[in-house]
Design the sequence.
């Protein structure tokens, strides 16, 4: 397998630590809001990677974190606490915020056909209580491991304490800026007005390992006792602690968004060196951003990104989004627009139709196409090549049953549910459903609520979910 390694700055041959085995740590979501399409891209790309390694015969060991404590706004040490802010807004506790949004992640992942980190299909009834059985790790359940790891760094001389926090001293790691090649003195941190910087912090790039319950965090919702006083862990330490817990002192691949290249990942790498004397992670692999037509990043703070339910309310299927994101290499910037998503929807429905026309009987796989499929995967997950091989095969004169068998092999990586196609004839289904939707709108406008309910039921019975939007009734498979 060849992948783009950020530290090598090129596509490299992945040499795993153990033969036929791969260990992957994926930076996961901070759970204080429902993720949007810009966030979702990473999880689809890494799901494709996970499935590809599995398909190519590797034994995949993978974990992903849920950040539920310590992540401040703007990724800064002394920013606003994201979990606490949301808790105050919703009038619930921070841990309730975390549980609530872990559940929305699971709901979205299930709809997008994203496997659990352990490689299982997400079941309908999986919720936050059981995520740790499936390869997810939660920062709040990792406090003893975090404290042990920080103690190691402290014993090795990488930390210092002030009255506000325990810090990691980045000048102790000579190649700290290896990710960006930036000079340490050019790194500006904490120069925003709303950020209170600790006057006793030695270097601007030093970062918090353990935050004390003082100053603006005196009333922090979640806190634990530690050798450095009552408090809570910094954001970066959880990933080092979890990676170590899952894989020990060496693992193969660490994934994350390119936004982690300047701060989060250099800090994680520095912590690993501080605790274990060596970098721990063999390959860092990053996904590019999803951008608008004007090249603006899709982001919660920009307010330019829909959530999955919002996209579904516009008439898209979660698998249209999967198709769009899976068809582009993780290392390529992805330009998102409603037209692009419509294009993906059309392409997916036409693929569904062609596959449906092959019939229900599956024959033998066609080795020639499987060989080319594997080559495309091994070539830095060349997914546009995978789709063009697939389309070429569908047009070929090969036996229909054999084509179907081969399509289903492709789908083990694509994850488009091609073995269980429901919406290939969406045009016909839509006409009737569209009629019900408009009749429901009319009934509601005329306050005939019993009739409106009747039409809602008819739409739901056809397997759609109904959404109320400012433009009236929308519906989608969900
Ligand atoms: Zn992380």
Sequence:
């Amino acid at each position: 397998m060849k992948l783009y390694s950020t530290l090598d700055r090129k596509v490299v041959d992945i040499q795993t630590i153990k033969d036929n085995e791969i260990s992957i740590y994926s930076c996961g979501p901070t759970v204080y809001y429902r993720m949007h399409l810009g966030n979702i891209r990473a999880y689809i790309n890494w799901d494709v990677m996970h499935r590809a390694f599995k398909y190519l015969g590797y034994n995949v060991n993978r974990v992903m974190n849920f950040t539920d404590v310590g992540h401040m706004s703007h990724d800064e040490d002394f920013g606003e606490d994201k979990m606490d802010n949301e808790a105050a807004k919703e009038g619930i506790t921070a841990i309730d915020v975390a549980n609530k949004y872990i559940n929305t992640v699971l709901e979205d992942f299930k709809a997008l056909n994203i496997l659990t980190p352990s490689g299982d299909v997400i079941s309908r009834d999986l919720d936050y209580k059981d995520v740790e059985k499936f390869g997810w790790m939660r920062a709040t359940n990792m406090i003893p491991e975090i404290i042990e790891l920080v103690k190691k760094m402290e014993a090795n001389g990488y930390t210092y304490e002030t009255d506000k926090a325990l810090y990691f001293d980045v000048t102790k790691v000579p190649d700290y800026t290896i990710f960006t090649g930036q000079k340490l003195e050019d790194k500006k941190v904490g120069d925003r007005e709303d950020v209170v910087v600790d006057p006793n912090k030695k270097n601007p790039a030093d970062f918090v390992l353990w935050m004390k319950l003082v100053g603006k965090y005196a009333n922090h919702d979640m806190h634990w006792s530690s050798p450095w006083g009552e408090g809570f862990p910094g954001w970066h330490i959880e990933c080092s602690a979890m990676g170590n817990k899952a894989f020990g002192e060496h693992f193969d691949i660490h994934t994350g968004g390119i936004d982690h290249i300047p701060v989060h990942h250099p800090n994680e790498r520095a912590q690993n060196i501080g605790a274990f004397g060596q970098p721990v992670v063999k390959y860092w692999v990053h996904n590019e951003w999803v951008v608008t037509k004007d090249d603006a990043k899709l982001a919660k703070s920009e307010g330019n990104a829909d959530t999955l339910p919002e996209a579904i309310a516009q008439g898209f299927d979660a698998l249209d989004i999967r198709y769009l994101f899976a068809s582009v290499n993780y290392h390529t910037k992805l330009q998102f627009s409603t037209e692009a998503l419509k294009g993906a929807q059309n392409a997916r429905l036409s693929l569904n139709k062609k596959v449906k026309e092959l019939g229900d009987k599956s024959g033998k796989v066609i080795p020639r196409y499987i060989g080319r499929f594997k080559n495309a995967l091994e070539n830095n997950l060349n997914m546009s090549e995978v789709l063009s091989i697939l389309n070429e095969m569908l047009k070929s004169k090969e036996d229909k049953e054999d084509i179907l068998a081969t399509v289903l092999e492709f789908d083990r990586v694509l994850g488009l549910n091609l073995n269980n196609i429901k919406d290939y004839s969406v045009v016909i289904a839509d006409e009737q459903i569209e009629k019900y939707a408009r009749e429901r709108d009319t009934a509601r406008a005329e306050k005939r609520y019993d009739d409106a309910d009747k039409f809602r039921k008819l739409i739901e019975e056809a397997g759609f979910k109904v959404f109320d939007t400012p433009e009236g009734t929308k519906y989608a498979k969900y």
